[in-house]
Each structure stands twice: as structure tokens, then as C-alpha cells.
Amino acid sequence: MDPDSACQSQAKMGKGGLALIGASLGARGKHYMCGSFAAFTNIIVTFPIQKVLFRQQLHGVRATDAMHQLQREGLRHLYRGLLPPLLQKTTTVAIMFGLYEDFSRLLLRHARSIGTPELVTRSTAAVLAGTAEAALTPFERVQTLLQDHRHNSRFNNTAHTFRTLLRDYGIRECYRGLVPVLLRNGPSNVFFFGLRGPIKQVLPDAQTRVGHMANDFVCGGLLGAALGIMFYPLNVVKSRAQAQVGGKFVPCHQVLMTVWQERGGSVVLLFRGATLNYHRSLLSWGIINATYELLLKVF
């Protein structure tokens, strides 16, 4: 067999194998699997950017100062805290896409009989999926502690951080910062799923697979970037709340007021890091949406 024929044969076998996996997953399961793979790809690519952004949210410093912090800590600590977002994001994005499809299918079945508008039904499905994602808040909690250099000597790794929190403070401590997560997840899902289709429709028609991927990237990236700016203060509140270990659980609005006062009542300082977050979200959600849609076609 000549090399070209061999390559074509291997490609067909690869596609056949993926099709077989898709068949075994079923129509419902593939949404979860595609979402998980898409999130995995995104986290590996964007984690260093996320770490710089986290330092800006927590300390209110410039991007260059945050980067200098990471440089001083060295490459050894650059991917410190990777496992929690890897586990959390691959699971939450799987839940986000998978449960949205499942809830939509279930609710639409009953909504037609009572005349509920499809927009209301799908928005409800998006909120329910976002609320379910919040069950994995402990991973965001551990990620925050591992990315905060003030805890470098206290927490060794993901497993050690979980053990310490559970042993010394109990399960409740793992859910510190849950309220801003809930306030962020539901509404952002509504906007993402509600606007994804209309935005893609106004983009130029794609004739090739690369063209479709580009449109999906632009669509997901624009939505992710816009929503990242819209809900940025909630992420600042979450980061500040989750950086605390032990002590009183401070209400969300009080944490926001504390940050506001510390930064001199400046909107600019409150949104410090928003520019980097915009670009990270543009890249991150572009990757997620394009990879998800591509995998759906492959499976």
C-alpha cells in the first residue's frame, strides 16, 4: 500500500473509531463528552493567563506586576493549582452543555402542551444547568487558595488543600464564595445559550469546516468576552471571599463594599484585570465553543 493510501485508511479508521465512540455515548451523552473535551483543551492553553488575572482580581495590581510575581516564583509554580480548574472546568462545561440539552428537551416536551414560549423554557433550562454547575464550587475554592502566593507554604497541592479544609473547617468551608458563583452561572448561561445562535446567523456563511470553526470561535469568543466584563465584579467578590480561610462568612454585598472602599471607590480599580479577562474570555470561550461544535460533528 502506498503512503497516501495508508494515511487515508488511517484517517477513515480514526473517523470510524470516533463515530463508534459517539454511537456508544448516545445522542445525550455526547453533549457531556464534547463539553468536557472542549474545556480540557481550553484550560491547558489559557491557565497561565488565568493566573495573572487572578492576581489582579485579588490584589488590584497591574498585569505587569502580576506577571513579575509569577516570574519571581518561577516555572515550578506557574501551573500550581492546575488540577482543580482542570477537574472543575471539564466537569462544569460538560454539565453546562449536557444538562442544558437535557433540561431543554424535558421542559420543551411539557411546555408545548401548556403554550409556554420557547424562550422562557430554554432560559429556565440554562438557569438550571448553571445552578447545577455551582455544586462544583469547591474546585474553584481550592484553585483560589493554590493560586494565592500567601498560601504557598500552607497548602501543598489539591489533595492536601481539600484534606486541610475538610479536617479543620468542614464541608461548609469548601463552599465559601457560593453566592457569587450562583449569581454568575445562571444569568450568564441564559445569555450564552440565548445569543449563541443569533450571533452566528449574522456572521458570513461558512462553506468549509475551517470556516465553520472560525465562526464558532468568533461567536463563542465574543459572548464569553462580553459576559466576562458584565459579571467581572462577581468574580472579584468570589476571589476575595475564597482567599479567606476560616472565620465568619461575609455576605456578598459586604465583600463588594470592602473591595470598593479599599480601592478608593474607583470603578477603574474595581475592574482592574477586566482587560486581561476580556482577552482571556475571548480566547477561552472561542476555544470551547469551536471545539465543542467540531466534536459534535465528529461524534
Question: What is the compact description of this entry?
Answer:
The chain is mostly helical and 299 residues long. It has helices at 3-59, 63-73, 83-114, 118-133, 137-147, 158-168, 171-174, 178-202, 209-230, 232-242, 252-262, 267-270, 274-298.
Keywords:
single chain; 299 residues; mainly alpha; Mitochondrial carrier fold; 80% helix; 0% strand; globular; disordered N terminus; MCP_transmembrane; transmembrane; mitochondrion; repeat
Give the topology.
Elements: H1 3-59, H2 63-73, H3 83-114, H4 118-133, H5 137-147, H6 158-168, H7 171-174, H8 178-202, H9 209-230, H10 232-242, H11 252-262, H12 267-270, H13 274-298
Overview of this protein structure:
With 299 residues, this protein is mostly helical. The protein has a single domain (27-298), classed as Mitochondrial carrier domain (Mitochondrial carrier fold), CATH 1.50.40. Helix content is 80%, strand content 0%. The chain has 13 helices and no strands. Helix 3 packs antiparallel against helix 4 (118-133). The protein is globular. It starts with a helix and ends with a helix. One of its GO terms (molecular function) is NAD transmembrane transporter activity. It is a multi-pass membrane protein.
